[in-house]
Write a structure and sequence with these properties.
- With 429 residues, the protein is α/β, with parallel strands linked by helices.
- The protein contains 16 helices and 16 strands.
- The chain has helices at residues 57-61, 100-107, 112-117, 122-130, 134-150, 166-182, 205-225, 245-257, 274-281, 294-300, 311-316, 324-329, 349-359, 364-370, 373-377, 406-409; strands at residues 4-19, 36-46, 51-56, 69-76, 81-84, 86-88, 153-159, 188-196, 231-236, 261-266, 285-288, 306-309, 334-336, 396-399, 416-421, 424-428.
- The strands form two sheets. Strands 1, 2, 3, 4, 5, 14, 15 and 16 form an eight-stranded mixed sheet that branches.
- Strand 2 (36-46) and strand 3 form a beta hairpin.
- Helix 5 crosses helix 6 (166-182), helix 7 (205-225) packs parallel to helix 8 and helix 9 (274-281) packs parallel to helix 10.
- The longest helix has 21 residues, at 205-225.
- 54% of the residues are buried.
Length: 429
């Protein structure tokens, strides 16, 4: 007898949250508050790691394709919920040292920019990362990514930014490239070059910008051609006392000219015209946006550019949270990221979704869309990630809970039973 072989079946699940079922690449406005949920449902992942079928259990039970089939993993989903693997739209995961001493200073009232101006913050992490070998950075990165997987993340944006000089930025991009090969069975990375995270000591921002445009970018593109590094995006920290509007525009345009997508930090601590710049340059995404203007929101809604909101940072720095409600009402698709870095030491998307609901007044549906489909779209990956639809990768989070909302509601320790990458179980609690 010829047996059809499949990697995974979860049958008779209480709920399967597909998010969408019409191949939508992102959701915005009122649509971001609607998700597709199948009750008493089954999902099947094929040997190629892609979803073969998803829908009501009784329909798939009678499907001839699955009658005499073998499933590498066959899970009884009774009382369980299935969600798409989470997508973290913004992290800085490669660095040495820590900033636990600065956490105490911030609690005592020091601001982020005061610490930055005294050579702390980003610069202290650059100094701590400089002396580490690639192998050490890779090992700590892999440990951090394992933690992300345990929290249900299966696709993650990963920035450099703790090198600043060309040789160190290359080192960080090489580490991300290696990690994307060594840990690809569990989590996929999209890497972002952030040489313009801070102005190196002894340089003006204009000099740093010229160095990035003349020296960094051409060299990185050559290394990418040789498959030594694999950046997809270019990023700049557009902020008072860091990179101004003109320098930011020049760097981002130079990156765009060689095929990098624009995905930058803006309007976090001060209003800098980031939304307007995103519209002007056709940016794929802008992160933070605590101080975005109404004009900036209108400009971002055109392409549209994704608003990658980071409630962890607003929480830790006691900033006024980003205006998620205004962005959604203005037709900007909202995504979420953990902003995992030595300043915001959190790599849990369930916790980020909880903060998004409580601090930014997003609904449960909006937060889930932001941490799945829209976060994937902010990385140009929503054709394969972010929803449970036929043909997409079988990346799943399986909850021991009767309703999917428990993953946001059960704070800090979400009821994650299994995490699945392309149909293979990569974590079980």
């Amino acid at each position: 007898v010829f047996l059809r072989l499949y990697r995974l079946r979860v049958k008779n699940a209480a709920q399967i949250v597909a998010v969408v079922d019409q191949g939508q690449k992102h959701l915005r406005g009122e649509d971001q508050d609607k998700v597709v949920v199948y009750t008493d449902a089954t999902i099947i992942v094929g040997n190629d790691g892609r979803i073969e079928a998803v829908g009501p259990a009784h329909e798939l039970e009678n499907d001839e394709r699955f009658k005499d089939a073998h499933f590498d993993s066959d899970i009884d989903g009774s009382g369980l919920c299935v969600l798409p693997g989470f997508v973290d739209g913004h992290t800085h995961p490669v660095w040495g040292g820590d900033r636990v001493n600065e956490f105490g200073l911030k609690l005592a009232g020091a601001t982020y920019m005061e610490i930055h101006a005294q050579g702390g913050g980003i610069q202290s992490t650059v100094n701590a990362s400089r002396n580490l070998e690639e192998e050490d950075l890779l090992r700590s990165l892999e440990e951090r990514l394992e933690r992300a997987v345990r929290q249900g993340t299966t696709l993650l944006e990963a920035k450099t930014g703790y090198g600043l000089s060309l040789d160190l930025e290359v080192k960080l991009l090489k580490v991300l490239h290696k990690a994307s090969e060594t840990i690809s069975g569990k989590i996929e990375l999209v890497s972002t070059y952030l040489g313009a995270h801070s102005v190196p000591p002894g340089k003006t921002s204009a000099e740093a910008s010229e160095d990035i445009i003349r020296n960094h970018i051409p060299h990185l593109i050559e290394l990418r051609r040789q498959n030594i590094i694999s950046p997809s995006n270019i990023d700049v920290f557009l902020e008072k006392g860091v990179f101004g509007l003109e320098d930011t525009r020049s760097i981002l345009q130079a990156g765009k000219d060689v095929g990098l997508e624009i995905n930058f930090h803006g309007d976090e601590i001060n209003y800098m015209g980031s939304g307007e710049l995103a519209g002007e340059l056709g940016a794929l995404a802008v992160s933070h946006l605590e101080k975005i203007s109404a004009e900036g929101i209108a400009a971002m809604s055109v392409r549209p550019s994704f608003a990658v909101l980071l409630p962890t940072t607003a929480y830790i720095l006691r900033l006024h949270p980003p205006p998620a409600r205004d962005l959604i009402a203005g037709g900007v698709p909202v995504a979420l990221g953990s902003d995992f870095n030595p300043n915001a030491h959190c790599i849990s998307m369930p916790f980020v979704m909880n903060l998004a609901c409580v601090l930014m007044r997003m609904t449960l549906n909006e937060a889930l869309v932001a941490a799945t489909l829209n976060a994937a779209a902010s990385l140009n990956k929503s054709d394969e990630y972010g929803s449970l639809e036929k043909g997409k990768f079988g990346d799943l989070v399986i909850l021991k809970a009767p309703r999917w909302e428990h993953v946001i509601y059960q704070l800090v320790d979400p009821p994650i039973l299994h995490v699945v990458k392309k149909g293979r179980i990569v974590f079980s609690s």
